[in-house]
Amino acid sequence: MVLRFSVAAALFIGFTVSLPIKPSNAQQPAAAKPSSTSQAAQNTGQPGESANALVKTTVQNELKAIDNDHTHWMYLTHTRKNGAMITEQIVETPHGNLTRIIARNGHPLSTEEQKQEDIKVEKFVNDTDAQQKQRQDLHNDAKKTQSLLAMLPDALTYTYAGRVGANTKLTFKPNPDFHPPSREAKVFAAMEGQMVINTREHRLVGFSGHLSKPVKFGGGLLGDLDAGGTFDVHQQEVGPGHWEISLLKVNIKGRALLFKTISEQQYERDTTFKRIPDDLTMAQAYDLAKKQNIPTT
């Protein structure tokens, strides 16, 4: 989990990546009063625990996992880009993530296409400055999204909506008493949907919903997100105690910098996770990637 984020991290990156958001000096979310709905909600499995309290425990566990899980993994990511489904190998190392395209629309690259792709990968393998920039970019994104993840228990009001096995379903809506400490956090004021929590492991399984109203940044001058934008994020346990994002779908529209229209459609499905040594060099990661005989769909 060294260079990957939590289930909420991917979601918030999807919502804010297209907008000119400046970093906030606020370090902690503003205090919010618990709603009467969350106080009254009861978990039949844990009498007396409100839905918001369950979310708080789960978020704390997610943040702890981000800090403490230093394992490295190899996996496939299937991403829709410019109308095509791109399949990439990802190999995590302490130096950065090696990314190598191996297929388009479920078909392996041609010999010439793979040759050109490998030239790009080899350049990255030998470019320590590019690796440093990747690490810094991921670190910055992780810090921002960890801050947003920590706001989840206070920013939204949760209500129990059922249970299947170890999974508990909650619905959520904006908490009117929450005051966003940053521009990014304003998105909470429009989010409605459902969250699924594995109450045995206290891990987020799913987080999905829509924007119930427009979100304006800087009074709309810096940008806005249209009402109706949707998000759907899932994560699963891919190894003992190790959870990873398995599906991310974000579909939003809006404007940035006055009148520039934005359209952010993200689809990512991650599969075929395999634990690898934690001390691989970038060159060793590349050799490992090339030796894999893996499916492309």
What does this protein look like?
The structure is a single chain. The protein has helices spanning 7-16, 36-40, 51-68, 111-125, 128-155, 282-291, and strands at residues 72-81, 84-93, 96-104, 107-108, 156-164, 167-174, 191-198, 203-211, 215-217, 223-225, 230-239, 242-256, 260-276. The longest helix has 28 residues, at 128-155. It has one domain (7-21, 41-291). It is built from six helices and 13 strands. Helix content is 29%, strand content 38%. Strands 1, 2, 3, 4, 5, 6, 7, 8, 9, 10, 11, 12 and 13 form a 13-stranded antiparallel sheet that branches. Helix 1 (7-16) crosses helix 5 and helix 3 runs antiparallel to helix 5 (128-155).
Overall strand count: 13
Supply the number of structural domains: 1
- The oligomeric state is single chain
> Largest sheet, described in full?
13 strands, antiparallel
| Share of helix, binned | 25-40%
Mean pLDDT: 83
Based on secondary structure, the structural category is alpha+beta
In N-to-C order, the SSE pattern is HHHEEEEHHEEEEEEEEEH
Radius of gyration: 20 Å
Overall geometry comes to globular
Tell me the span between the first and last alpha carbons.
Answer: 23 Å
The low-pLDDT segments are 17-45
Question: Which features would summarize this protein structure in a list?
Answer:
13-stranded antiparallel sheet, 13 strands, globular, alpha+beta, 297 residues
Question: What is the topological layout?
Answer:
Elements: H1 7-16, H2 36-40, H3 51-68, E1 72-81, E2 84-93, E3 96-104, E4 107-108, H4 111-125, H5 128-155, E5 156-164, E6 167-174, E7 191-198, E8 203-211, E9 215-217, E10 223-225, E11 230-239, E12 242-256, E13 260-276, H6 282-291
Antiparallel strand pairs: 1-2, 1-13, 2-3, 3-4, 5-6, 6-7, 7-8, 8-11, 9-10, 10-12, 11-12, 12-13
Helix pairs in contact: 1-5, 3-5
